[in-house]
Every structure is written in structure tokens, then in C-alpha cells.
Amino acid sequence: MITLRDVCKAYGQFQVLSHCSTHVAKGEVVVVCGPSGSGKSTLIKTVNGLEPVNAGEIIIDGVSVTARGTNLSTLRARVGMVFQHFELFPHLSIIQNLMLAQVKVLKRTRPQAHKKGMALLDRVGLVAQAHKFPGQLSGGQQQRVAIARALAMDPVALLFDEPTSALDPEMINEVLDVMIELAREGMTMMVVTHEMGFARKVANRVIFMDRGEIVEDAEKNAFFDQPRSERAQQFLSKILVH
Ligand SMILES: Nc1ncnc2c1ncn2[C@@H]1O[C@H](COP(=O)(O)OP(=O)(O)OP(=O)(O)O)[C@@H](O)[C@H]1O
Ligand SMILES: [Mg+2]
What we know:
By secondary structure, the protein is of the alpha/beta class.
């Protein structure tokens, strides 16, 4: 579903991504972790063309993200992205937030978009909030809306960049629960997160990045039980002690 081949990216002299290659199969959940500044956000943003690359190739569902002439807005409509800071439109109600791109990009009628939006709000447990504005919802609720908004586009895959790291601790699980359910339903997902409990529960593989390189790309249990590289061992010992 998602293939990266030798992806390189630099900001001036600074190499943010060096020869990153991986493959995410349909229905697979891949967790991306690594120290701050290692290139996780940049990697995930290159996947749906939010960040251009200097070299290498990215293919999603048979369509090249990196080839010239690819319509990036069509592609982005097919790959959902959920960020740390929900990025809902503050002046639109929750249901309007869910309808907007369905109507503008997918050309659904307003009744169709409304129906789909309400069904997704039901799925994330927020039907009662449909007519409120984002500012009236908790962080956990807003993030669930952001996930529903991504799902409204019938994406072929979902990308997450630290979806729970801006949330108060008591709200983390309500968001992770939605993600766990999506994973179990077979959604293809790439998730940048430090939630190793989530990784252990639903990830198929873990990618560990350091200094712009994919240092490990391993089956989940292999990664947690026997990380090959010293850098991954150090990283795990730091984040798993608490
Ligand atoms: N627009 C930019 N211009 C220059 N350097 C950048 C830019 N965006 C990111 N970087 C640098 O690229 C490196 C990787 O950044 P990135 O945000 O991908 O890291 P990250 O692994 O997501 O870190 P974090 O865990 O803190 O979110 C960092 O050193 C960062 O300073
Ligand atoms: Mg980041």
C-alpha cells in the first residue's frame, strides 16, 4: 500500500532523511519511533506529499507521490493525516468540519456528507457534540473528531503524527481506543508515537529512526525483545523504565 524507496531529504546542508526505505502492506500497522529530531514527522509528511523529497520514490496504492504530474490534492484526499494539534476549523461546527472536504474535494452532496459525518461521529462516540464548535470540546474529543474527519474521505491509509502527545493523560486512552479499533478493522496505518503500549498491542512492525535514518524496521516482538542496534536499545531503555 505504501512503499518508500531510498527517500532522501535535506534542508540546505542538513540531511533530515537519508536513504529511507520501507513498505507498509494493506492492513498493516507500522509504528514509527525514535528520538526528537530524528526525522519522524518529516518522514510521515513526505508520504502524502506535504514535504517534497530530494531523491527516492514514494508510491501509495500504485500512485507515485514523487513523480512529476501527480495530482497531490487528489492523493492527499486518499491518505488521511492526523496531527498532534487537531487542526479543526474553529469557526465551523463539528459536523461542518466533517462535511467540508467531502463536499469540496469529493463532490458529495450536503445530505450525503452529513449522513457520512454523523455515522462517523457515532463511531467515535461524539454524536451529541455534532453542533458544537471545536473550542467547546476537550482535546481528546477534538482528536476523535480529527480522526473521524480523516475517515470521512474513505482513505486508503491513515498517517498519524503523535496524535496523543498534546493530550492530558486521562484523554489519551479514548483516542488510542479509536485507533486500536481502526487497526483491528484492517485500516492501513503509519503512526508516529511514543505510546509503546499501543505499539505492543496493535503494531505489526516498528520502525526506529535516528538522525534521519531508518535504523531498525522489525516485526514488533523482535523490536521490543531484541532490538538489534545499540541506538534502539538505548532509546527503549529510556522510554520503558517508567
Ligand atoms: N522546515 C525545516 N527547516 C529546517 N530544518 C528542519 C525543518 N523541519 C524540520 N527540520 C529539522 O529536521 C530534523 C527532523 O525534524 P522532524 O520534525 O522530522 O523530527 P521528529 O523526529 O519528528 O522530532 P520530534 O520527536 O521532536 O517531533 C530536526 O533536526 C529539525 O530541526
Ligand atoms: Mg515530530
